[in-house]
Amino acid sequence: MNSLHGIDGLDFFNLGVVIGASTLADELKAKKLIKTGVDRLIVNYTGENPDVNMVNYIKSENKEVFLYIKESDIKYPLDDFIKSNEDLNIDGIIVKVVSEKSNIFTQYFEKNGI
């Protein structure tokens, strides 16, 4: 991970760059970002699974890939959503929680008695 030793002993790091992953332009952007030293790419989930070939290319460059999705775009149970994206070989899923009341994680924990 690229990190910078910052002010007053604080470290700063490159969390990643958000990109699309469905068009040729997105693929070219990813290649350019990788060449400039980006550590990880965060793929913006738009309701369709990102291009598997693009994700595989990013992984072949030894970069981490995360899927970013708004909570409201998850149309089925969380564990089903995760399973449907396992074949992408991503490093993780980042979920933007919009409301405490509709929090998909709270619903998941309550459903599973956690």
Regions with pLDDT < 50 over 5+ consecutive residues? Answer: 1-6
> First CA to last CA: what distance?
33 Å
Say what oligomer this is. Answer: single chain
**Number of strand elements:** 6
Q: What share of the residues does DSSP label as strand, in percent?
A: 15-25%
What order do the helices and strands follow?
Answer: EEEHEHEHEH
Helical residues, percent: 25-40%
Question: What count of helical segments does DSSP give?
Answer: 4
* CATH class annotation: Alpha Beta
Strand order of the largest sheet: 3-4-5-6
In round numbers, the mean pLDDT is 77
- Total count of domains: 1
**CATH homologous superfamily caption:** Aldolase class I
Radius of gyration: 16 Å
Major β-sheet annotation: 4 strands, parallel
Notes on the protein architecture:
The chain contains 4 helices and 6 strands; from the N terminus they run βββαβαβαβα. It has a 4-stranded parallel β-sheet. It has a two-stranded antiparallel sheet with strand order 1-2. Strand 5, helix 3 and strand 6 form a beta-alpha-beta unit. The radius of gyration is 16 Å and the shape is elongated.
List keywords for this structure.
114 residues; alpha/beta; four-stranded parallel beta sheet; two-stranded antiparallel sheet; 4 helices; 6 strands; 32% helix; disordered N terminus
